[in-house]
Specification:
Helix content: over 70%
Largest sheet: none
Number of domains: 1
Structural class: mainly alpha
Number of strands: 0
Radius of gyration: 14 Å
Strand content: under 5%
């Protein structure tokens, strides 16, 4: 793997970990009131794709 690939993977993992922790930051009544948000926060596949997209954007902008 190239250094840039390793940097991308590391940033992707960092973003994914932050996204996975988001659910604990929301009050239960917020999650109850917004079923779409609840679904997204409970969907690991959705969060993985979102993290990949965010890391990809940073890569394209030259931040990685």
């Amino acid at each position: 793997m190239y250094d840039k690939d390793k940097a991308f993977e590391a940033r992707y993992q960092q973003i994914l970990e932050k996204l996975l922790k988001l659910k604990s930051c929301y009050q239960p009544e917020v999650l109850h009131a917004d079923p779409v948000l609840t679904f997204k926060l409970n969907s690991k596949l959705y969060l993985q794709e979102l993290a990949r997209m965010m890391a990809g954007r940073e890569w394209l902008e030259g931040k990685i």
